[in-house]
Amino acid sequence: MTPVELSRTVLRAVRCAVDDGELTVVVPARVVIERPRPGGSGDYASNVALQLARDAGAPPRQVAEILRDRILQDRVHSAPGIAGVEITGPGFLNFTLDGADAALVRDVLSHGLRYGHSLALDGERIELRIPAHEPRAEVVADAVSHIVAALGGHAETVHIPPGRTEDPPGRTEDPPGRADGTGADGTVNLRPVPAPPPPAIPLGPDPTRWALLHPAPHDRPRLTPDHLVQRESNPLFRVQYAHSRALALVRGADDLGFHSTPGHVGDTPEVQDLLTALADHPIVLVTAARHRAPDRLARHLVATADAFFRFHDATRVLPVGDEKPSAAHRARLALAEAAGTVLAGGLSLLGIDAPEYV
């Protein structure tokens, strides 16, 4: 069971509890699933009971108990894969899944570059209004369009002539309308802080796009040679290098005559951090689309790359010497391959290449 499927299961439990009169609340549009925080347990957690408690007129733990019973009942009929549900703290729901780590890696590898794509914005049409002849706004709108399309929506860019846009630069502001911030007519004013003049030494397409997308809309981008340096201080290099290292591990395994097989990788902090980054990817895509913020995806890719390097440095993915490939090696390789897949898919949505060799 993936985080998206788990979110749907919890949402279905809320809806059933409302239909049967156990809860008197407005059913939320979606339920956020995340990795447990300190003090939590299991594979995933949700604070939905705390969010609903006030409207329900009941303590959060009581709401959590209602939802837990619904979810455990649901797993027998239509939601297999949930091994247990525990309530912690004031009312957090903590979920333990059957083979959760292997299932997550398997899900990434089966979907490939489309991992995290969904129908979260199915049928939504958005008009991105940007200042005409402004390079950064153009690049941001293009990335937003790709991310929205990956979630089933459609975004169209409209160029506003100078003097007709009133919002100050650095704002991604939506006209009054729907609860998610989009105007009633589907319009969005997209005005990141403009790009500086092009540098004397051209950066090239990928470093330029990254330099314009990685900073938040209200931050001024830097078009400097730093984006060309192949060292850890360059976030784009870290992301692309992590992807190439993952592919190198796959090639190395092929030379040794074995391939990846998702399985239990271990419970070390390095493994869990990387699994968390992979599990968060679908949620990050939805957040980036709804907030028209590709910078969130860019920062998530940096975090995923950093988690991959910590895992890579702390774990022997490939056998050495006379060591024979084991199930553990195959599972570690699958996790590394999944990390490379997420990095390649995210870079693709940003319009940036994921090279095989760096």
From TrEMBL:
Q: Name one Pfam family in it.
A: DALR_1
Give the Gene3D superfamilies listed for this entry: Arginyl tRNA synthetase N-terminal domain, Isoleucyl-tRNA Synthetase, Domain 1
Residue ranges of every copy of the DALR anticodon binding domain listed in the record: 239-358
Q: Which GO terms describe its molecular function?
A: arginine-tRNA ligase activity; ATP binding
The enzyme class is ligase
Residue limits of the Arginyl tRNA synthetase N-terminal domain?
A: 4-97
Q: Which one GO biological process term can you cite for this protein? A: arginyl-tRNA aminoacylation
- Which domain of life does the UniProt lineage start with? Bacteria
Which GO terms of the cellular component aspect does the record hold?
Answer: cytoplasm
What is the protein name for this chain? arginine--tRNA ligase
User: Native species of this protein?
Assistant: Streptomyces himalayensis subsp. aureolus
